[in-house]
Amino acid sequence: KAVEVTCSRERIGTAVLQRTVRIGYGRAVALIDQMEELGIVGPDPGDKSGREVLLTLEEALARLPAEEN
């Protein structure tokens, strides 16, 4: 669900992910960090504009480990 929400946007931040997926801050941070490791989102720009989403949903799903698809 987090990947679907992320890939439907141009930029994503923890607050947006928290609200849309209804998760806590810590979980949102962990998910965004995992998505960065997988190349789904770019690095944190440090200016509260959110991370750039780099892949389409199909491309992102192809990068997820099998048990997460």
Summed up:
Helices cover 49% and strands 6% of the residues. It is mainly alpha-helical and 69 residues long.
Structural commentary:
- The protein is mainly alpha-helical and 69 residues long.
- It has helices at residues 2-7, 14-21, 25-37, 57-63; strands at residues 11-12, 51-52.
- A two-stranded antiparallel ribbon has the order 1-2.
- α2 (14-21) packs across α3.
- The protein is globular, with a radius of gyration of 11 Å.
- The N and C termini lie close together (10 Å).
- The mean pLDDT is 93.
What brief labels describe this structure?
69 residues; 4 helices; two-stranded antiparallel ribbon; globular
Task: Summarize the main sheet.
Answer: 2 strands, antiparallel
Roughly how many Å apart are the termini? 10 Å
How many β-strand runs?
Answer: 2
Low-pLDDT segments: none
Number of helical runs?
Answer: 4
N to C succession of SSEs:
HEHHEH
Percent strand: 5-15%
Instruction: Name the strands of the widest sheet in spatial order.
Output: 1-2
State the helicity in percent bands: 40-55%
Task: Please give the structural blueprint.
Layout: H1 2-7, E1 11-12, H2 14-21, H3 25-37, E2 51-52, H4 57-63
Helix pairs in contact: 2-3
